[in-house]
Design brief:
Length: about 300
């Protein structure tokens, strides 16, 4: 058994329900709307996602735990985390795993339900390397740690009816993992949202985003700085023109993009409903929300 086997228990993707589904809604709280290079309103990736009654932390980049606690969305901090899912293992999307695991080792933590981590193949290798350095300092004191690496056609099925399904995206990986993923969320009433993660144009993303209620998609740079494995206004516009999401939210903005009105830039290629996110933006789908949001940046109706 590898060394990490002493700390981590692997289990199936079926998640026991601890309560029934009373609220049918997808909540998407953007704690970090930037890339690896932060600005005052665009910190590295971090998203607090509610699927019906269950919340999870998506892509905990640097400072994610602090921003989550300061947001007022999770007063329990580490004890309030049940599941963490990752699109890929670049540090601006995963660095706070270290802080979260170290915090969970504290004697003040009392949650006894498992802390569940989901991500692409390579996640266990990353954790193995962290445990090689820090050892038992990263072992949760009051609960077990459960890790699942996604494989083809797998999905996280919640007993309340919600489904989280990963799909491959176009973001080349040359360390730890072979590929990155995006996520398709479906609540128990059939409302849908897609998170692109980091990606360039890809047929898989177009397919996943087709006619969704909410598309949260990266828009890393202006068109003149377009970079392989990432999106810019023109490629996001082409994606939206093809997939026709009900509402599009632009995130993962590096400084040159964050300083622009990306909604205006995107209007050259697409005339649908678009919002430019910043840290603290929040969007809801379902329960008569019609893709509503709060604290947005520029928006076009």
């Amino acid at each position: 058994m590898s060394r990490i086997g002493h700390y981590i228990h692997i289990r199936s993707l079926d998640v026991p329900a601890q309560y029934l589904c009373f609220i049918t809604m997808i909540n998407f709280h953007i704690l970090g709307a930037g890339g690896a290079v932060p600005t005052p309103e665009h910190c590295p990736a971090a998203y607090w996602v509610g699927l019906d009654d269950e919340y999870l932390l998506l892509d905990p980049g640097p400072g994610a735990l602090v921003r989550l606690v300061k947001s007022g969305l999770n007063d329990e901090g580490v004890d309030g985390l049940g599941a963490i899912i990752l699109t890929h293992l670049h540090p601006d999307h995963s660095a706070d795993l270290l802080a979260i695991l170290f915090a969970s080792h504290s004697v003040v933590c009392t949650n006894t339900t498992p802390l569940r981590l989901f991500g692409p193949p390579g996640l266990k290798v990353l954790l193995e390397k962290l445990f090689d350095i820090y050892g038992s300092w990263l072992t949760p004191r009051s609960r077990s740690l459960e890790v699942v690496e996604w494989h083809e056609n797998q999905a996280l099925k919640l007993n309340n009816g919600g489904i989280i399904k990963p799909f491959k995206v176009n973001h080349p990986q040359d360390r730890l993992s072979d590929y990155a993923v995006g996520y398709h969320f479906t609540d128990c009433e059939g409302h849908t949202a897609v998170f692109s993660g980091d990606t360039g144009p890809s047929p898989e993303l177009n397919k996943a985003a087709r006619n969704v209620d909410l598309l949260v998609v990266e828009c890393s740079t202006p068109d003149h700085l377009a970079t392989a494995g990432h999106m810019s206004p023109e490629t996001v516009g082409q994606l939206c023109q093809d997939s026709q999401p009900r509402k599009t939210v632009l995130t993962h903005q590096y400084p040159a993009a964050a300083g622009l009105n990306l909604v205006e830039e995107l209007s050259k290629f697409y005339d649908g409903l678009v919002c430019q996110a910043r840290d603290g933006s929040s969007f809801q789908v379902g329960d008569n929300s019609a893709g509503s949001g709060s604290e947005p940046g520029p928006e076009r109706n």
